[in-house]
């Protein structure tokens, strides 16, 4: 058992050495001992790496172990015929070329060999020169097949990389059209693309949809006092707060300037108002100071909130209702959330002003 294992190891090392030297590997199968020995010895003399087998079973074991450039097999053998060996070879190593030889040549057998993608059909007896030319041509075709396969694989890899680049570029272009360059939030174009569908879904399934319009109070004054860079940072901070308070199903939009919109699918007015209140509180806690007409304080936001279908059932009228509520929030002193159905009755005061 140990001797067999050692033999396999040595044989494997020898094959790897052969692969590195680039010598073509040939498998010869013939149940005639003299013919087999003669071919193996001759081909080895031509600087090929050659294995010889007396039967099909042993040949199939070799095919399982190694990849050969060329198979040379007798056609008529028992119990496994040459055609079976060729079929087995092509199933496992389709690039390996097969040369079939027999002393019982016939048109039918030649046609059958061709149908099995045999490279050539050699009739016994043959000259060694005939074998040399046939083997050389078969090896050339084998190498060409390998190069073609490598080329196809490389083209496939390049095509995959190109498709990935196209997908990324397409996504980048889509992001440019629907993403705000400063905050990374969705923009007005994105809002236009989703609001009608969201409202339709809300009405179809009989569920609420809330829309909040948020605006930073005295933002122009804050910008003038601290500079545009600080103003940009404040906008990005609000964007981060909104994202941290949102659900995956919510849509957060930088609507324009210092105005933001949040679409809350399947959300009633009170629940949406609580979400906006959390955002407002988090902004106040950021302590971004601004010296406004009302005195020195922190940057705050005002918000108007409307719900479909209670306040409106169309995109334009829903935005108008939320915008009017925001207008009332500003008029009532800022730093507050006004609900559309309360916009002319009372304002929801922020926890601190």
Describe the structure.
The chain is of the alpha/beta class and 353 residues long. It folds into two domains: 2-151, 3-Layer(aba) Sandwich (Rossmann fold), CATH 3.40.50; 188-349, Reverse transcriptase/Diguanylate cyclase domain (Alpha-Beta Plaits). Helix content is 54%, strand content 19%. It is built from eleven helices and 13 strands. It has helices at residues 2-21, 33-45, 56-65, 82-92, 107-115, 128-178, 188-204, 219-226, 228-245, 269-285, 315-331, and strands at residues 25-29, 49-53, 70-74, 97-102, 120-123, 209-216, 251-256, 259-265, 289-292, 295-298, 301-308, 336-339, 348-349. The chain has a six-stranded mixed sheet with strand order 7-8-6-11-12-13, sandwiched between helices. A five-stranded parallel sheet has the order 2-1-3-4-5, with helices on both faces. Strand 3, helix 4 and strand 4 form a beta-alpha-beta unit. Helix 3 runs parallel beside helix 4 (82-92), helix 8 (219-226) packs across helix 9 and helix 9 (228-245) packs across helix 10 (269-285). The radius of gyration is 40 Å and the shape is rod-shaped. The termini are far apart. The model is unreliable at 1-20 and 344-353 (pLDDT under 50).
- Give the helix proportion (percent range): 40-55%
> What class do helices, strands and sheet pairing give?
alpha/beta
- Strand arrangement within the widest β-sheet reads 7-8-6-11-12-13
CATH architecture of the largest domain: 2-Layer Sandwich
Order of helices and strands: HEHEHEHEHEHHEHHEEHEEEHEE
Q: Which fold name is given in CATH as the topology of the largest domain?
A: Alpha-Beta Plaits
Instruction: Return residue spans where pLDDT drops below 50 for at least 5 consecutive residues.
Output: 1-20, 344-353
Strand content: 15-25%
What's the domain count?
A: 2
């Amino acid at each position: 058992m140990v001797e067999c294992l050692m033999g396999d190891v040595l044989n494997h090392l020898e094959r790897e050495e052969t692969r590195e030297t680039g010598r073509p590997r040939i498998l010869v199968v013939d149940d005639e001992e003299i013919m087999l020995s003669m071919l193996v010895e001759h081909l080895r003399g031509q600087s090929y790496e050659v294995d010889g087998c007396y039967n099909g079973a042993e040949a199939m074991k070799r095919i399982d172990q190694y990849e050969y450039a060329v198979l040379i097999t007798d056609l008529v053998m028992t119990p496994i015929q040459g055609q079976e060996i060729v079929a087995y070879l092509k199933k496992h190593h389709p690039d390996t070329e097969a040369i079939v030889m027999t002393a019982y040549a016939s048109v039918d057998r030649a046609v059958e060999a061709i149908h099995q993608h045999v490279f050539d059909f050699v009739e016994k007896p043959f000259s060694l020169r005939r074998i040399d030319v046939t083997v050389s041509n078969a090896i050339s075709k084998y190498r060409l097949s390998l190069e073609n396969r490598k080329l196809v694989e490389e083209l496939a890899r390049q095509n995959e990389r190109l498709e990935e680049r196209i997908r990324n570029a397409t996504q980048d272009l889509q992001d440019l059209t629907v993403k705000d360059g400063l905050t990374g939030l969705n923009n007005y174009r994105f809002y236009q693309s989703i609001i009608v569908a969201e409202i339709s879904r809300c009405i179809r399934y009989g569920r609420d949809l809330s829309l909040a319009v948020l605006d930073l109070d005295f933002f122009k004054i804050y910008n003038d006092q601290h500079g545009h860079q600080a103003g940009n940072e404040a906008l990005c901070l609000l964007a981060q707060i909104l994202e941290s308070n949102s659900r995956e199903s919510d849509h957060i939009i930088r609507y324009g300037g210092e105005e933001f919109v949040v679409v809350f699918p399947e959300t009633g007015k009170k629940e949406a108002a609580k979400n906006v209140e959390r955002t407002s509180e988090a902004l106040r806690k950021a302590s971004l100071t601004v010296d406004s007409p009302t005195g020195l304080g922190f940057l705050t936001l005002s918000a108007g909130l409307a719900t479909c279908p209670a306040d409106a059932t169309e995109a334009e009228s829903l935005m108008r209702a939320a915008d009017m509520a925001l207008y009332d929030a500003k008029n009532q002193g800022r730093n507050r959330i006004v609900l559309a159905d309360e916009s002319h009755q009372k304002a929801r005061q922020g926890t601190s002003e």
